[in-house]
Structures are given as C-alpha cells and as structure tokens.
Amino acid sequence: MKILFIGSIPGHKPESGQKPLPEHDALFTAAREIGEKAAEKGHVILIGSDSKNTVDYYIAQGVMDYCRKNSGMQRQIEVHRPNDSKSPFVEDVPENLSIVRQYYHEDSSNPHKWIVTHVRALDSCDCIVTLGGGASTRIVGNIAADREMAIVAISSFGGTSAELFDRLQYVYKYKVKNKSVIQSIIRPWSADSAENVIAISEALTESGRKTPHLYFISYSWTNSAEADHVEALLRRNGRSVLRDENNVKTGGSLSGAIELLIKQSDTFLALWSDSYSRSSWCPQELEFAINKSSKNEKPTRVVVCALDDTSTPIRVTDTLRSQGQDRTQRELTILRLLKEEG
User: Do 94 and 27 fall into the same domain?
Assistant: First the structure.
C-alpha cells in the first residue's frame, strides 16, 4: 500500500522563516513513530518536503529508524517535489532504503507549486494521512475527500487535520469496524497510536477496494433540492448514486434506461411527497422497484423517505419507511440506511 503523508506545524507558512517551537515536539515525535510503524508494515511512503516544519521530514526519519534496526528488510520512500527544488534525503540514508524521486514540471514562479505537486501525488497513493497542517493540508485534504479517497485525518494535534476529521468522522464510523482505534486520532498521543493510525489506513483502503453500495434516488423534480441533499449525504459517505437527470419525459411508460438504472441499484430510495404521488412517472419507478425486489432481484432494498405528510398506497406500506421532512431527519435516515446495508 502507498501512503501519502501531508502536514506540518499548525498554521504553517512556507518560506516565511517560521521556526518550530518546543510545543511542536509531540507532533514531530508522533510523525516519526508513524513512519517507523508504516515501514514495519511494509508500506511505501510518499512525502514531499524535507522542511523540519513539516511532518514529511519526521516521517522519513521514522522510516530510516526502522531500516537501521532491520538491515535485512528493504523499504521505499517516494519523494514528490516541484522540478526546481533540490534533492532531499541524500545523506545518511540506510543502504536498505530506496528513495525514488518524482519531480513535476511546475512554473517556478507559481506560489502554489507545492500544492499542485501534492495534488498530483494523490494519483500515486492508496491512502492519505494528515497531521496538523495549514492551508496546503486543508486544500489537498479536501480535494482528496471530494475524490472519496481513503484519508486518516489525525485530530490530536489540531491544525487543519482537525477540520478534516470533523468532515470525515461519519466515514470512519461506518468504514472502520474496530471503533476503538478511531480514538487514537482524537485523543492525546499514546504508545499504540501509531499502530492504530496504520490500522485505520489499511481498513479504509481495503473498504475503498470493495464495490460501494449503489443507491437509486427516485424523486419528483419539485423536490430536486431534497434529492441533492440526499445525494450529497450518500456520496460523502463513499456511496455511489444513480438518479434520473432528465426532466423531459416522453411516452407513458417507464423507459428502458430508467429500468436499467433501477435494476443496477442495491437500494431504491423514493423521496415520497404530494408531488411524487401525483407524478405520472415516479409511482411507476417505485412499483417497478418493488416488483423486482419481491422476486429477490435488484434492488434488494426499497425505502420510502417521506418528505411531507402525504399518505402512501397500501402497496407501499410493506416497504421500509423513514422520515425526511427536514435536513436533520434526512441525515438521520441516511445514517440508518448506511448502518443497515446488507
């Protein structure tokens, strides 16, 4: 597995002459421990900077610690940098540590060249671990989150990694089976924290390799805003979403394209409302999904999320029902559905 490490002292301002303070020692010690533990597990380490204000430098030192203690084990670090930067880590490198340098041709006058380099490094990794951090960590971390990549944002040392953790905590809740290890990236650093960080990285990466649960959202176009909210909640938790984006309907029966989308889904989620019940299309979608599910075909689960008090027909009363009249209710519904996935 390839792990990209990003972070620095909180509020880091590159090329400003900023000096690390004694209060940052705990962050650097943690980074060194994580580097050593990642090397012990045999993972390839991706870093960028060799500045002592960043976690990259200390991650590399941890890998070197492992290599010096285990001379028979070969390990690898990939260094991703702009093309006009010097080659880091050329002295005192253990013989059993291979350092591969990847340079990106960026405009040397570009003030954001390091961020661009980090973003390009995302394409080479399986997982990202962030510690502390300033603006660069915030930007790169959120880009990775938008891509639904595996991210371990260590909240223990503050910085923008704490912000990322707040965004990702529901992902951790549903993708990491061992809930106790999550506390290692929230609480003060301890002897087993580094090992737990790597365990979370491995769990998230393995989870990402599995085919995500696929949802089809059925809704009336008057409820597009609610559908957008539900889709965002699902995608934020790493689920794939299908929905009919064509608001121009022709003919009186369900199209083959819509039938195919519904048959591909694991969960059919109907956003029931007065507009839905009066639509000429939406009830057909729901009826089609119920018929397929009753034959033990996909979708394997049919859910009706009520956006208002409109009653449902008898045929629908046997389906799983939930409430979604406001944002809070919809969020609780989605959390329940994620937890109850087959």
Answer: yes
Distance CA 332, CA 73 (A): 48
Residues 194 and 237 in one domain: no
Tell me how far apart the alpha carbons of residues 101 and 88 are, in angstroms, rounded to a whole number: 9
Query: For residue 146, which of 119, 121, 124, 173 has the smallest C-alpha distance?
Result: 119
Structural domain range at position 104: 2-206
pLDDT average, residue stretch 222-250: 83
Mean pLDDT score across all residues of the chain:
88
* Distance between start and end Cα atoms, the chain: 28
Contact yes or no for 55/156 (Cβ under 8 A): no
Q: What is the model's pTM?
A: 0.62
Residue 246 scores a pLDDT above 60 = no
- Helix, strand or coil, per DSSP, at residue 73: coil
Do 135 and 248 belong together in one domain? no
Question: CA-to-CA distance for 210 and 230, rounded, in angstroms?
Answer: 22
Measure the CA–CA gap between 67 and 61, rounded to whole angstroms.
10
pLDDT digits (tens, 9 = 90+) for 15-60: 666 777 888 999 999 999 999 999 999 999 999 988 899 999 999 9
| Cis amide bond preceding 299, omega within 30 | yes
The distance from CA 119 to its chain's CA centroid, rounded to whole angstroms, is: 15
Same domain, 47 and 172: yes
- Could you tell me which of 86, 20, 19 has the C-alpha nearest to residue 49? 86
Edge to edge, what strands does the sheet with 240-243 contain? 240-243, 214-218, 267-272, 301-306, 320-323
The neighbour count for residue 340, using CB atoms within 10 Å, is 11
pLDDT in tens, 77-119: 999 988 766 778 878 899 999 998 888 776 666 666 778 888 8
Is residue 214 helix, strand or coil? strand
What's the pLDDT score for residue 83? 79
Q: Which residue has the tokens 């809930």?
A: 179
Residue pair 44/11 in contact (Cβ under 8 Å)? The answer is no
3-state helix, strand, coil in the chain (%, to 5): 45, 20, 35
